[in-house]
Amino acid sequence: MSQEGTSPNQPQSPAIAGKARKTPSRRFCTAPMMDWSDKHCRYFWRQLTKDTLLYTEMVTTGALIHGNRDRFLEYNEIEHPVALQLGGSNPSELATCSRYAEEWGYDEVNLNVGCPSDRVQNNMIGACLMAHPQLVADCIKAMQDSTSIDVTIKHRIGIDDQDSYEHMRDFVAIVAETGCKTFIVHARKAILQGLSPKENREVPPLRYDDVYRLKQEFPELEIIINGGIKTHDQIAEIMPNIDGVMLGREAYQNPSVLIDADELYFGKPANTESAKDAVRALYPYIETLLAKGAPLHYVSRHILGLFNGQRGARLFRRYLSERAHLRESGIQVLEEALQLID
C-alpha cells in the first residue's frame, strides 16, 4: 500500500470534509497503480498538471474497515480532483467504504475489476469479478446507494477464455443497468493463471477496436480507455473514438508527459514552465515531511523518470538513488541532482 509519511497539512477527515464536489473531468487521467500512485506521487504529479484526474492506489475494503483508515485515506487538498479506488466484492463493505470516500472529500469512488494478481483473486477482488457480472452490479448499486459522489468501474476487456467482445458487452450492459455511467476499460484481457501482474500488463495484445465498438454500442455511457498509451500524438488518434484516456506506467516512468495535459485536454495554461520548476515547487512539501522524520526517498523515488531523454538524466537518477534513502539527505541532494541535468 502507500508509503508511510505524514501529510504536511492536517489529514482530510470526516469532521472537515466538505460536501460532494462537482463531477471531475475524465478526459485525461492517471491510473491507480499499486506501490506507485501514493499520496506523495500524486502531490508531485500535481506540480505538473492541475486538472488531470488522479486515482489512488487500490485500497481493499478490509484495509479500510479493519485497518488504519487515516493511513489509507489521507491526502493533501492540492490533489483534487482525486478518486479513491476500492478493491472488494462484498456489497455491504463496499457501501461502507464508499461512504468513507465521500466523508473524506474524494471526488469519485472507483471499483477495481481489473487487477489480475493471485493475491486479490483469492479474496474475490479484481479481474476475476468479470466472471460474475451480477455480483459486480450488486456491488456498484450498493456503492451508489451509499454516496452522492460518482461511482465508476475499471475493468478489462475480458478474462481467460471469456474474452470475446460479446462477453465484455454483456458485462457492461448488466452493470450499466445500475445507472453506472463511467466505464474505464483496460484494453487487454487478463490471463488469471500463468501470467504475473506485470506480464498481464504486457503480454495480452491490446484491442482498442473493442473499446471503440463499446462506445458505439453504448453512446450514452462515458468510456475511458487505458493500456499502452504513451504519447499525446497517440492520444490524438484515440480520442475521437472514446470519451477520455487514462495513462498508467507512462505517467509514472516518464512524468514529463503530464506537463502538456492541462493545455491539450482542458484548455488551461500549463501548470509549470519546466520540469525543474516542478521539482523545486516540491521543496516546501518535502521539508515538512523531513521535519517529521520521513526520508527524502518517499518523494524522490517518484521523480526519477522526469528527465528521461535529456542529457544528464542517468546521472540524475543515479545520484538520487544512491543518496535519497540516507537519513541526512535533504533538499540539497535534490538541488545537486538537478544541476546534473543539462
UniProtKB/TrEMBL annotation:
Which cofactor names does the annotation list?
A: FMN
This chain's function reads: Catalyzes the synthesis of 5,6-dihydrouridine (D), a modified base found in the D-loop of most tRNAs, via the reduction of the C5-C6 double bond in target uridines. Specifically modifies U20 and U20a in tRNAs.
Q: Spell out the catalytic residues.
A: 115
Q: What reaction is this protein's catalytic activity?
A: 5,6-dihydrouridine(20a) in tRNA + NAD(+) = uridine(20a) in tRNA + NADH + H(+); 5,6-dihydrouridine(20a) in tRNA + NADP(+) = uridine(20a) in tRNA + NADPH + H(+); 5,6-dihydrouridine(20) in tRNA + NAD(+) = uridine(20) in tRNA + NADH + H(+); 5,6-dihydrouridine(20) in tRNA + NADP(+) = uridine(20) in tRNA + NADPH + H(+)
Q: Which PROSITE patterns match?
A: UPF0034 (PS01136)
Tell me the keywords, alphabetical order.
Flavoprotein, FMN, NADP, Nucleotide-binding, Oxidoreductase, RNA-binding, tRNA processing, tRNA-binding
The name this protein goes by in its record: tRNA-dihydrouridine(20/20a) synthase
Superkingdom per UniProt: Bacteria
Q: Listed GO molecular functions?
A: flavin adenine dinucleotide binding; FMN binding; tRNA binding; tRNA-dihydrouridine20 synthase activity; tRNA-dihydrouridine20a synthase activity
Q: Which InterPro entries match?
A: Aldolase_TIM (IPR013785), DUS-like_FMN-bd (IPR035587), DUS_fam (IPR001269), DusA (IPR004653), tRNA_hU_synthase_CS (IPR018517)
Family under the similarity heading: Belongs to the dus family.
Family matches, as NCBIfam families: PRK11815.1 (NF008774), yjbN (TIGR00742)
Please verify whether the record's keywords include NAD: no
**Can you give the residue ranges of the DUS-like FMN-binding domain?**
31-339
Task: Supply the source organism for this entry.
Answer: Thalassolituus maritimus
One Pfam family of this protein, by short name? Dus
Region: Disordered; residue ranges are: 1-24
Any idea which positions bind FMN? Answer: 32-34, 85, 154, 186, 226-228, 248-249
Task: Report the EC number(s), separated by commas if there are several.
Answer: 1.3.1.91
Say which enzyme class the record assigns. Answer: oxidoreductase
Which parts of the sequence are marked as the site Interacts with tRNA?
A: 112, 198, 201, 314, 317
- Compositional bias, Polar residues, is annotated for 1-13
Gene3D superfamilies hit by this protein: 1.20.120.1460, Aldolase class I (3.20.20.70)
